[in-house]
From TrEMBL:
InterPro entries: CobZ, FAD-dep_OxRdtase_2_FAD-bd, FAD-oxidoreductase_2, FAD/NAD-bd_sf, Succ_DH/fumarate_Rdtase_cat_sf
Organism: Verminephrobacter aporrectodeae subsp. tuberculatae
Cofactor needs: FAD
Pfam short name (any one): FAD_binding_2
UniProt protein name: FAD-dependent tricarballylate dehydrogenase TcuA
Keyword check for Zinc-finger: no
Lineage of producing organism: Bacteria, Pseudomonadati, Pseudomonadota, Betaproteobacteria, Burkholderiales
């Protein structure tokens, strides 16, 4: 069967895909969106998100203070350690300052800043009802505007001729369109590809066998691999780099989302199976550092870690869905965690003795630190000495992978460095252009929103045979 009555085909069902579909439809194009998941699981990883990182020079509605473009850029530069396309990154930063009114027009509501979240509310706008409410709002708007939606429609291959999109194949159908936007996510749910990318470590382990997937199980990377291997699309990124955080080891294999993340790391210490610390828990504010901990845990024996706090930390962090392991003594805690008691006591005694407690302030880079301890704890270092003691077992939780398709400010897919005239990419499939490594909270939604809107606009222009518009950085 050949479908001929759509100008723009959007492949994917999350934030970037929906932004593309809405922009293309607003530009007057007929749009068909194919979502691989069934309707009840629509939205991809975006359904598990909470916020969008936004540049602003002064307080704006739900954002407090100021978060100027240079600070945003420096934050991104720091977490990626320079592995980012500055031109594209600055474009996304600029776009983050102006997208909220457009989002509101499509039914997205934002949460006013709450007490206790002011540090994050300076940099991030939170969605009322979270990511699920956001994607539901976009789907309602898409239906109202006449975007055709098809669920349970995974695309397994594309027809491309001389860098131009011709047709897509889904559920045995051949679907043609004048332009196409790819926004089908990374390959984090493809266990075989993860194994292939990471290989075995020096201990003979396959680390990825112990990875949990925070989001959708439908991100198998089928189209990404197809574009790279069958059509020779230009690639960007390292297959082992990903948005990967430390989550509760009891989380499900797929779909655990935000509620399984462990956010008390900076308030205590983290040890591995050998009861040894392995990184500075207080290096920087948690929204800038939380996404390094999945990779850190992945490098430990058995891909396990244990976040340990005491009574002084309780109530100071967002509680996860599972309760922590409680104990009246540290020796009892070690036994409950299955750790060597003597080894854990040595680690904690050394840490406690090294703490130099000044003025504790978890909303600032305070002066509570350790001395003569490796690894050091740079901020928020206080002895773990007050019962009850609490711990969470950790595993790596993958959000999305960074290997993707190289693009530019037009969002065009590139073949031998030549941009396609009618095939565009947005979201996680191109995030590696901006995120070579590392992550800062809300950046993924900034990338998806900015490039999704650009891709949708340019796909509509291609469908009516206009030159793609080049957004300015």
């Amino acid at each position: 069967m050949v479908v001929l009555d759509h100008d723009v085909l959007v492949i994917g069902g999350g934030n970037a895909a929906l932004c593309a579909a809405l922009m293309a439809r607003e530009a007057g194009a007929g749009v068909l969106l194919l979502e691989a998941a069934p309707k009840e699981w629509r939205g991809g990883n975006s359904a598990h998100t909470r916020n969008l990182r936004c540049m602003h020079d002064a307080p704006q509605d739900v954002l407090v203070g100021a978060y100027p473009k240079q600070e945003y850029w420096q934050d991104l530069l720091k977490v990626t350690e320079g592995q980012t396309n500055e031109h594209l990154a600055r474009l996304i930063i600029r776009a983050s300052s102006t997208c909220r009114d457009w989002m509101r027009r499509h039914g997205v509501h934002f949460q006013p800043a709450l007490s206790g979240t002011l540090q994050v509310a300076r940099t991030n706008a939170f969605f009322m009802g979270g990511g699920k409410a956001l994607v539901n709002a976009y789907y309602r708007s898409a239906q109202r505007l006449g975007v055709a939606l098809r669920y349970g429609s995974p695309v397994d291959r594309l027809e491309i001729g001389q860098g131009r999109f011709v047709a897509a194949h889904a559920n045995g159908e051949r679907i043609r369109a004048k332009a196409c936007v790819l926004a089908a996510g990374g390959f984090e749910s493809n266990r075989q590809w993860l194994r292939q990318a990471w290989g075995q470590n020096e201990r003979g382990e396959w680390p990825t066998d112990n990875f949990l997937i925070r989001g959708t199980e439908y991100n198998q990377g089928v189209l990404l691999r197809h574009l790279l291997e069958e059509h020779g699309a230009d690639r960007i990124g390292d297959a082992t780099q990903a948005h990967m955080v430390a989550i509760d080891a009891r989380a499900p294999l797929y779909g655990g989302g935000i509620c399984t993340r462990i956010d008390c790391v900076s308030l205590g210490v983290v040890v591995n199976r050998n009861a040894q610390r392995f990184y500075d828990e207080g290096e920087d504010f948690w929204p800038k550092r939380y996404a390094i901990w999945g990779r850190l845990v992945a490098q430990q024996p058995g891909q396990m870690g244990y976040s340990i706090i005491d009574a002084k930390a309780l109530g100071r962090f967002m509680p996860p869905v599972f309760p922590g392991v409680l104990a009246h003594t540290l020796e009892e805690l070690a036994q409950k965690l299955g750790l060597d008691t003597a080894a854990l006591m040595r680690t904690l005694n050394d840490y406690n003795a090294a703490c130099r407690v000044g003025h504790f302030d978890h909303t600032a880079l305070d002066d509570c630190h350790t001395e003569s301890l490796r690894p050091a704890k740079t901020h928020w270092a206080r002895p773990i000495d007050t019962a009850p003691f609490c711990a969470y077992a950790l595993k790596p939780g993958v959000t999305f992978t960074y290997l993707g398709l190289r693009t530019d400010e037009t969002a065009a897919v590139r073949f031998s460095d030549a941009p396609s005239q009618n095939l565009f990419v947005a979201g996680e499939m191109m995030a590696g252009n901006v995120l070579g490594k590392g992550y800062a909270a809300g950046v993924g939604m900034s990338i998806g929103t900015a490039l999704g809107r650009i891709a949708g606009s340019n796909a509509a222009r291609a469908a009516i045979r206009k030159e793609p518009q080049r957004a300015s950085a």
